[in-house]
């Protein structure tokens, strides 16, 4: 089984990954790009039992690549705050998407982790200019 961490290379994507891996350390293939490079899921070729964790990348842009990964037998957790388009129902897909204007991906991960690595969510919120959210 192979783990893939696929994430936006900005503060939000990096802080979201930091939160998750502080809570659940694991060896993984790291896939990222420059700040505005978001079609990253297509860079991996997962197989049966592999697990993708996708952070701060538009589901709409990556939907086809996610579908291919699911068809290949992979599992996928998807955390994001961008408009997702249509999100399919699939037993191996868990999505955590919130498009509210005062939310970034790291705040979504913060909820998922019940605040256990909150300082990283605060850093990301400031990085995404969500000052009020960061101060809450």
Description:
The protein is of the alpha/beta class and 136 residues long. The protein has one domain (3-135): 3-Layer(aba) Sandwich (Rossmann fold), CATH 3.40.50. The chain is built from five helices and five strands; from the N terminus they run βαββαββααα. The protein has helices at 11-23, 59-71, 105-112, 118-127, 131-135, and strands at 3-7, 29-32, 51-55, 75-80, 93-97. Strands 2-1-3-4-5 form a five-stranded parallel sheet, with helices on both faces. Helix 1 runs parallel beside helix 3 (105-112), helix 1 (11-23) packs antiparallel against helix 4 (118-127) and helix 3 (105-112) runs antiparallel to helix 4. It is globular, with a radius of gyration of 14 Å. The protein starts with a strand and ends with a helix. The mean pLDDT is 97.
Layout: helices, strands, pairs:
Elements: E1 3-7, H1 11-23, E2 29-32, E3 51-55, H2 59-71, E4 75-80, E5 93-97, H3 105-112, H4 118-127, H5 131-135
Parallel strand pairs: 1-2, 1-3, 3-4, 4-5
Helix pairs in contact: 1-3, 1-4, 3-4
